Structure formats: C-alpha cells, structure tokens
C-alpha cells in the first residue's frame, strides 16, 4: 500500500442520491443453499426496477463464474469470496446503487467485515432463515443429495458450518408465506428507513 494515495471522488453520496431519487445500500442476503436467497433477491430487484430505482444483483453462482472462479468452498476460499464481493458491493454503493448480494456467506465474521466497510445503515443484513430440512427437501440442484453421498465435500449445513446472524436487520423464512409478501416486507423496510421513496 506504500505510495498509493486515495483519490477523492468529486461527487458525494448525497449528490448521487439526489440525482437518482433514492439512497444507496447493500442488502446482504445470507442463508443456506436452497434457502431462496437468489429467488428473493431477484424478485426484489424486479420490483425495484419496476419502481424506476437503480439496483444490481450480485449472485454467488454468477460471481463464481468470473471474479471468483479461482475459489472453492474451503472456509478460507469462502472468506476471500466474500471479501472480494464486499469490495465490489462497496464500489457499487459508492455509485449510488441499491446492491443486492445473494451469497451463502456462512461466517459471521466475514459478513461483519463487509458491514464495517460501509457507513452506518448502509449494510442491511437479510437472513434467509429457511430451515435446513426444507432446503434439503427442495434440493433444486441435487447438491444436498451429492453432499450426503459424500460426492461434494465442505457442503454448508452438512459438512461445513453455517453461523446464523445474531442481529440481522430482517429475517425471512421462505417456507412461510408467499414471495409477494416477502418482497413487500423488504420494500416496506426500504421505504420506512428512508432509502427509497
Ligand atoms: S459462499 O459460502 O458464500 O462462498 O458461497 P457462494 O459463493 O454463495 O456459493 C454458493 C453456491 O455454490 C453452490 N455450491 C455450494 N454451496 C455450499 N457449499 C458447497 N460446498 C457448495 N458447492 C457448490 C451452491 O449452488 C450455492 O448456491 P445457492 O444459490 O446458495 O444454492
């Protein structure tokens, strides 16, 4: 880091927010594989887009095809995955976007590191708290079956730990209620917090 000096942007957060008509924030969806993170974040993004708001969805499966394709699923690699994604999310937040991040992000410390990267109120942790039994019965990609058979190692919830958030801003169990009401809960949070009109 020697000889590298931070370049100060000419445009402030509040100037960007004024131009866009809403504040930026990171909505960080965390939960087990199959919990419904991508479905929920995708549906929220569609609703934000419909309202003319500026957002972008960062999704674990997609990021692992490019930016993080060199990483596996050891706890160390997952930490690096979340570190990189956190930095990208922070840049997008700087650009004034509502950033939706859908990653298992199983370690509390790594999520807290991302929270610490940004300002107060700019990190909204959404615990997608669908129980393991439900995720496993859904098994949309057949991964739980493979993990149980020992064909996939270090699988979250089976052979690798998941540390649930202790004080997430929002908790949503996708096995209860319907998608529309879950999206409405997220939108209400953003409106009541003054993030979006
Ligand atoms: S992490 O822990 O945050 O770095 O994981 P993430 O980048 O979100 O990637 C999770 C998706 O990768 C698939 N997959 C696995 N998940 C958990 N454990 C293991 N070992 C594993 N191997 C592959 C899985 O499809 C996850 O996607 P989702 O959408 O969560 O089901």
Structural commentary:
The chain has a single domain, classed as P-loop containing nucleotide triphosphate hydrolases (Rossmann fold, 3-Layer(aba) Sandwich). Helix content is 42%, strand content 13%. Helix 2 (37-50) crosses helix 8 (179-192) and helix 4 runs parallel beside helix 5. The longest helix is centred in the middle third of the chain and has 20 residues, at 75-94. It has a 5-stranded parallel beta sheet with strand order 2-3-1-4-5, with helices on both faces. It has helices at 13-20, 37-50, 60-63, 75-94, 108-117, 132-138, 143-148, 179-192, and strands at residues 25-30, 55-59, 98-102, 123-128, 170-172. The N and C termini lie far apart (40 Å). The mean pLDDT is 96. With 197 residues, the protein is an alpha/beta fold. Bound molecules: 3'-phosphate-adenosine-5'-phosphate sulfate.
Work out the radius of gyration.
17 Å
- Characterize the quaternary organization of these chains: single chain
User: What's the CATH C level?
Assistant: Alpha Beta
Order of helices and strands: HEHEHHEHEHHEH
The helix/strand class is alpha/beta
The CATH architecture can be named as: 3-Layer(aba) Sandwich
**Structure ligands:** 3'-phosphate-adenosine-5'-phosphate sulfate
Helix content: 40-55%
Largest sheet: 5 strands, parallel
Query: What is CATH's topology name?
Result: Rossmann fold
* Widest sheet, order of strands: 2-3-1-4-5
| Residue fraction in strands | 5-15%
Low-confidence stretches: none
Distance between the termini: 40 Å
**Average predicted confidence as pLDDT:** 96
* Anisotropy-based shape: globular
């Amino acid at each position: 880091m020697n000889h590298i000096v931070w370049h100060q942007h000419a445009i402030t957060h509040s100037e960007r927010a004024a131009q866009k008509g809403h504040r930026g924030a990171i909505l960080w969806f965390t939960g087990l594989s199959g919990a419904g993170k991508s479905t929920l974040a995708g549906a929220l993004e569609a609703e934000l887009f419909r309202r003319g708001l500026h957002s972008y969805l960062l999704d674990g499966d997609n990021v692992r095809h490019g930016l993080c394709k060199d990483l596996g699923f050891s706890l160390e690699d997952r930490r690096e995955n979340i570190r990189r994604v956190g930095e990208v999310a922070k840049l997008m937040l700087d650009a004034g976007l509502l950033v939706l991040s859908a990653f298992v992000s199983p370690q509390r410390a790594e999520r807290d590191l991302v929270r610490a990267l940004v300002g107060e109120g700019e990190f909204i942790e959404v615990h997608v708290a669908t129980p393991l039994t439900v995720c496993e019965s859904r098994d949309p990609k057949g991964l739980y079956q493979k993990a149980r058979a020992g064909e996939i190692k270090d699988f979250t919830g089976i052979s690798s730990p998941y540390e649930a958030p202790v004080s997430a801003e929002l908790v949503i169990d996708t096995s209860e209620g319907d998608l529309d009401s879950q999206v409405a809960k997220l939108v209400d949070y953003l409106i009541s917090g003054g993030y979006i009109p």
